[in-house]
UniProtKB/TrEMBL annotation:
<comment type="function">
    <text>Catalyzes the reversible reaction in which hydroxymethyl group from 5,10-methylenetetrahydrofolate is transferred onto alpha-ketoisovalerate to form ketopantoate.</text>
</comment>
<dbReference type="GO" id="GO:0003864">
    <property type="term" value="F:3-methyl-2-oxobutanoate hydroxymethyltransferase activity"/>
</dbReference>
<keyword id="KW-0566">Pantothenate biosynthesis</keyword>
<comment type="similarity">
    <text>Belongs to the PanB family.</text>
</comment>
<dbReference type="GO" id="GO:0000287">
    <property type="term" value="F:magnesium ion binding"/>
</dbReference>
<dbReference type="GO" id="GO:0015940">
    <property type="term" value="P:pantothenate biosynthetic process"/>
</dbReference>
<protein>
    <recommendedName>
        <fullName>3-methyl-2-oxobutanoate hydroxymethyltransferase</fullName>
        <ecNumber>2.1.2.11</ecNumber>
    </recommendedName>
</protein>
<dbReference type="GO" id="GO:0005739">
    <property type="term" value="C:mitochondrion"/>
</dbReference>
<comment type="pathway">
    <text>Cofactor biosynthesis; (R)-pantothenate biosynthesis; (R)-pantoate from 3-methyl-2-oxobutanoate: step 1/2.</text>
</comment>
<keyword id="KW-0808">Transferase</keyword>
């Protein structure tokens, strides 16, 4: 498989070949992303909820993120390896952003970073790009700000909010971002921003008109369930935008069903004595040795 470079992403964008992005949080998911290779593997800070059981991404520390980045890096080959900068590790100041991003490259072994934010993060993106750390920007719904945004809501549905997003997209491209995630916005706006930019856009709940798509691993394979906090946050605000939010997830497999089948099969087999089978699933011993032992 060919290694994904930033140049290759640009040519995929130019030829309108959709770019594929999946999240990975550990060695086996990184191997899976590399075997049927996606273009970009993202160690998303959705790690906080789907793997670590935190109620939101704001609980994730840089050290926790680094631990998972290293595991993913060990299994990652051709996809470009990008990781989210955790909440609080870049926004406070440009020098915080530089320090944290350098740690993510040196200790996390990732090839680039992603950070959430609009025009307020332009200087951060510029500084990282300047020292040679590729940056993926992220606008629209910003999960690290779910409290200030009053929940996980679709963004850019008014003319004013759409203009703010378009301005941010241009500013982030000018600052050097190699790509930009568009999360939870009307499909029309996702396509419009994509046409206005030269860098590839990666959509999640932004319609089919972006340069590529990203999904959270657990949403994609259908193991997303025991993570009530995010689920409750999304479904407990009964207004149309929240219904829209749910629209972008498609389960491409039903791994949860298989997990239930496996665990209940194992438990039943142990309890009813059918596992292990002494001949097929055990080790034998010479009769002589056994008698000596006795
Ligand atoms: O954290 C994450 O998984 C993400 C992607 C869904 C874009 O930011
Ligand atoms: Na994220």
């Amino acid at each position: 498989h060919v290694k994904t470079t930033i140049g290759r992403l640009l040519s995929l964008r130019t030829s309108k070949t959709p770019i594929t992005v999946l999240t990975a949080y550990d060695y086996p998911t990184a191997l899976a992303c590399s075997a049927h290779p996606v273009d970009i593997t993202l160690v998303g800070d959705s790690l906080a909820q789907v793997c670590l059981g935190y109620p939101s991404t704001t609980h994730l520390s840089l050290d926790e993120m680094l631990h998972h980045c290293r595991a993913v890096a060990r299994g990652s080959t051709s996809p470009l390896l990008i990781a989210d900068m955790p909440f609080g590790t870049y926004a406070p100041s440009v020098s915080d952003a530089v320090k944290s991003a350098v740690r993510m490259v040196q200790e996390g072994h990732v090839e680039g970073v992603k950070l959430e934010g609009g025009e307020e993060t332009v200087e951060h993106v510029r500084a990282l790009t300047k020292i040679g750390i590729p940056v993926m920007a992220h606008i629209g719904l910003l999960p690290q700000r779910h409290v200030s945004l009053s929940g996980y809501k679709v963004q850019g549905r008014t003319a004013q909010s759409a203009s703010t997003l378009l301005r941010a997209a241009h500013a982030l491209e000018d600052a050097g971002a190699f790509s930009i995630v568009l999360e939870a916005m009307p499909a029309l706006l996702g396509a419009y921003i994509t046409e206005q930019l030269n860098i590839p856009t990666i959509g999640i709940g932004a319609g089919p008109g972006t340069s590529g798509q990203v999904l959270v691993w657990d949403d994609m394979v259908g193991t997303w369930s025991g993570h009530k906090p995010r689920w409750v946050a999304i479904t407990s605000c009964f207004v149309p935008p929240c219904l829209l939010w749910l629209r972008f997830v498609r389960h491409f497999a039903d791994v949860r069903k298989e997990v239930v089948r496996g665990v209940s099969g194992y438990v039943n087999a142990v309890r009813n004595g059918s596992f292990p089978d002494s001949e097929r699933e055990g080790y034998s011993m010479d009769r002589d040795e056994w008698e000596k032992f006795l």
